[in-house]
Design a protein that fits this description.
- The chain is of the alpha/beta class.
- It has 2 domains: 4-192, Rossmann fold, CATH 3.40.50; 208-376, 3-Layer(aba) Sandwich (Rossmann fold).
- It is 41% helix and 15% strand.
- The protein has 17 helices and 13 strands.
- The chain has helices spanning 11-15, 22-34, 54-60, 85-106, 121-125, 138-141, 148-160, 171-180, 208-211, 232-245, 263-270, 291-297, 312-319, 332-336, 348-360, 362-376, 381-388; strands at residues 4-9, 40-46, 71-72, 111-114, 129-134, 165-168, 189-191, 218-223, 251-256, 280-284, 300-303, 324-326, 341-342.
- The strands form 2 sheets. Strands 3-2-1-4-5-6-7 form a 7-stranded parallel β-sheet. It has a 6-stranded parallel β-sheet with strand order 10-9-8-11-12-13, with helices on both faces.
């Protein structure tokens, strides 16, 4: 049987090496699996001069067997950048300069997959089947949470989509995508759920609290950067109401994640509660290897996000056996199912009540932990890969 020659865009992996985002984890996990499928012959394509060396990256990730298949088209990414007059002119120049050279290379392959980056018009003009992921529409749904420059860039990307198949990571994301690209309603669009890394599993660590200066036996955990969309101020207010309702001296609130550009706003709010300052911990960056233990030791994971394309942290927490409190919006119910506890996005009193109920009820925490572990088993990278490529 003739193998399908797949160009697999690794631009995002090379650009984010060492500081991998959720999208990078998706790209890497799918790459690992599709490269082992007998139906496919995978060719990692490098579309930019930026980022780490692809040879070293693939070798470091245990994918050295793909090094001989690396395809280099270092100006391809720049032919997608059309979000201002200068970029449009430069894009046109590069397209004209490299069109015939790249088209000649592209004729050797059958399919092209982009897990994140926009696809070049040069590829669209070739005969290659194109698949493209849409992870979320955050810059268009909630532009106030992104920089104006990125909003403009993302709007341009969405307008440029011409892929043969668009893959959305949730039904909620597909609905949002249709709002901005109604022409795709009757085209080949499908939903493929993601999965969590296998390292996320119940993990005990006596040292994790000491390492991140958590002063109490128990803690509520919130994870991510300090983007307003993650609703960290609401989490803080809910925790304070919880403490005012229940005399709980053995529990803290832990904000885990890099200190982004909105970090100072959270700190200002924390200063409004000096009596609880020693119970509110901001860890800063947390090593990936520490996250399973940090999830597992938590009394509950708090994720009242205002919008998520998929909500991978909810799945990571469930896979670690940690009860989840989240919101019934966007994709979050698709991940949490009937296992997560749902609260309104802005009702601190209600969230404090649910936190208090979990804190005071060990048997309920145990029940939710077991249900979460069972639900998490429904999401696997093997299933994700099979559904992307329609494998049997």
């Amino acid at each position: 049987m003739k193998k399908i020659k797949l160009l697999y865009d690794i631009e995002q992996l090379l650009m984010s090496a060492g500081r991998e985002t959720g999208i990078c984890r998706v790209s890497l996990e799918v790459l690992k699996r599709i490269s082992k499928q007998k139906e496919y012959e995978v060719y990692p394509i490098v579309t930019t001069k930026k980022g780490v060396d692809p040879v070293k990256y693939l070798e470091d990730k245990g994918l050295g067997y793909l090094v001989p298949n690396i395809v280099r088209m270092p100006y391809l990414k720049k032919t997608t950048q059309k979000y201002n007059l200068y970029k449009k002119a430069y894009c046109y120049f590069l397209t004209q300069k490299y069109f015939h050279e790249y088209m000649k290379q592209l004729r050797q392959y059958d399919e092209y997959l982009s897990l994140f980056s926009p696809i070049s018009p040069i590829i669209y003009k070739s005969q290659i089947k194109t698949r493209m992921f849409i992870h979320d529409l955050i810059p268009l749904i909630m532009p106030e949470t992104c920089s104006p420059g990125f909003v403009k860039k993302y709007r341009s990307w969405i307008k440029q989509v011409k892929a043969d198949e668009v893959i959305c990571v949730s039904d909620a994301t597909k609905i949002d995508f249709f709002k901005f690209r109604p022409d795709y309603i009757n085209k080949n669009t499908k939903v493929v759920y993601l999965a969590a890394d296998s390292k996320f599993k119940p993990s005990k660590s006596n040292a994790i609290k000491e390492k991140y200066h958590i002063p109490t036996q128990k803690y509520f955990l919130a994870v991510s950067d300090h983007n307003p969309r993650k609703n960290f101020i609401h989490i803080l207010n809910s925790f304070v109401k919880f403490l005012n309702q229940i005399e709980a001296k053995d529990i803290s609130l832990v904000f885990a994640g890099p200190k982004g550009r909105h970090y100072e706003k959270l700190q200002e709010k924390i200063q409004n509660y000096p009596e609880y300052a020693n119970k509110i911990i901001c860890t800063g960056f947390v090593a990936d290897s520490d996250m399973p233990a940090l999830y597992s030791e938590a009394t509950a994971f708090l994720y009242p996000s205002l919008y998520e394309g998929f909500g991978l942290p909810v799945l990571e927490a469930m896979q670690c056996g940690t009860p989840v409190i989240t919101c019934h919006n966007s994709s979050l119910p698709e991940v949490g199912g009937d296992v997560a506890l749902y609260v309104p996005e802005t009702d601190a009193k209600k969230m404090a009540h649910v936190m208090g109920d979990l804190y005071s009820n060990p048997s309920k925490r145990q029940e939710l932990s077991l249900k979460g572990l069972q639900r998490a088993q429904q999401f696997t990278w093997d299933k994700t890969t099979q559904q992307i490529f329609d494998l049997k």
